[in-house]
Amino acid sequence: MKSFSSTRALRQTLKRLHSGQLVLGRLGPSSTSLPAQPATRPTTRSYASTAAVPASELLFGQPVHETHPHILQPGELTPGISAQEYHERRAALCRSLPPNSAVLLPSAAVTYRSGAVFHAFRQESNFLYLTGFSEPDSLAVIRNTGPNSDDYIFHLFCRPKNPKAEQWTGPWSGLDAARDVWNADEVADIARIEAVLPDVLSGVSKIYTDAELTKYGVPTKLGNVVHAAADNIPTAALRQHVNALRAIKSPAEITNMRHAGQESGRALTAAMSQPWKYEKDLAAFLEHQYQTRGLDGHAYIPVVAGGSKALLIHYVLNNGKLNDDEFILVDSGGEYGTYITDITRTWPASGKFSPAQKDLYNAVLKAQRSSVSLCRASANMTLDKIHHITDTAMREQLQALGFQLKGNEMGVLFPHHVGHYVGLDVHDTPGYSRSEVLREGHCVTIEPGIYVPDDDRFPAAFRGLGVRIEDSVCVGEENPLILTTEAVKEIDDIEALRS
User: Fold this and answer.
1) What is the CATH number of domain 248-497?
2) What is residue 157's three-state secondary structure?
3) Alpha-carbon distance 253 to 83, whole Å?
4) Scanning 22, 164, 197, 276, which has the fewest C-beta atoms within 10 Å of its C-beta?
C-alpha cells in the first residue's frame, strides 16, 4: 500500500500546486483523522468552513513558495531543499529499517526566556530533516510498510487552523497544508493524538524514536500516549539510522552550506578590515552583515574575544573592550535554510601582527592548512586521525618557537578536538563517531588552536595569546571543498585589509 508520497503522485501534485492549478482551502478546526490521499487529487478544494482561496492569499506557519517566492523556488519546502528530496530522505530511512516498523518524531517545543517572553522557534533537527515542517506541537509518524522505496505512510499530527488563536500567536499552517504542501499521507489534529495513534501504530512490530518517553523513571506525557497506543511494542533508538543519512550531504545541502560559508566569510573579512573598540559592536556588525547578505542571522551565539579571553573556548559574553595590542578571536558563522557554517578567525586588533603574534599564528596556520588538505576521500582519513596529525604538527611548530613540551603541556595548549561534523547543527549528527572514515559528502570543521596561559612553563612572549583558525570543509573524492574560503586567513591578506 502506498498513497500520495509515491514519487509519481508527488510530482503531479507539486506541478499543480506550483503552477497555481491547485488551490488550498482554509481549514477550520477539525477533529477527524483524514484518510490517506489517492494518487490523483482534485485541482481545487473547498470546505464547509470557508470558500477555497489561492495559496498566495493564505498565511502559513512558515514560508512557502506561493507566499514567499523571494525565499523559495517552486517545489522547495525549505530554502534549497525540494519536496522530492524530503520524500527521498523518508524512503531511504525506511529502507534501513525492518518492515512493519514505525518512526516516531516529536517536534521541538517553544522555549521561554522568561515569563511570557519566548525564544525564536527552532525545529528539532531530525524532524526537520525528514519533513521540512517547522512548527511546534507536531508529531510525525513514518510507517514502514514494505521493502520498496515507496512503501511507507507519512502521518503528520499538527494544529488545525484556528483564527482566534492565530491572532495571538501568528499563523499556523493547518491540516490541509500538511497534506497539500508537506505531502503527509494522513493528517490529524495533534489534540486527538490519544484517539488516533492506536490505529496508526496498529500492527507495528517495532518503534524507532529518540523521544523522551520517560524522565526520572516516570512516563512523560508523550510516553503515556505511546504506552497506551502501543503497549508491549518494543522501542529502539532512531539517531544512528538518521545520522547515517544526515552525515553524507546531498548536493542541495552542500549548496546551502557553501552559500552560508561564502557570505559569512565575506562578513568576517569585512570585519577584519576596520578597527573595533568593543566586542559587542563587532558582534552586532556580523549579525547585520549576515542578515543583509541574505542569510538568516547568526548560526550560533558567537565568540568575540579580545586578548586573553580568547583562551576561554566558548567565551560568549562579548561585552569587553578591544585593545590595539591584543588579538581578536571571532568564532562566528551565519545560517541559511537552517544549514550553518562554522568559522573562526584571529587577527590583531591594530591590523598589524607583532612578532610574537605572527609566530604563534603561523604555527597554527601551517597545521590548519595541512589538515584541511587531508579532507578528501582518497586520503582514507578519519577526524580522529586528522586530530592526531594536527597535534603532532603543532607540537613541532611550538618546539621550534622554544616551547618545552613535556607531559600534558599539549593538552593544556590544545585542549579540544581538531574538528566535528557540521550541517543542520553546529555539532552535527550527535553520536556519529569521529572514527568514521571520511567519505565524499561528509562536512566537517578543521579548527586547530593554541591557547597559552600565563604560566612560567611557556615562553613569556606568548603568554596570554590565543589563536584558533577554523574552516568548514566538505570532503571531496580527490580535493576538499572549503566552504568558508572568503574569510581571509593569510597574514599578508589580513594586514593588507587595513594598510
Assistant:
1) 3.90.230.10
2) strand
3) 13
4) 164
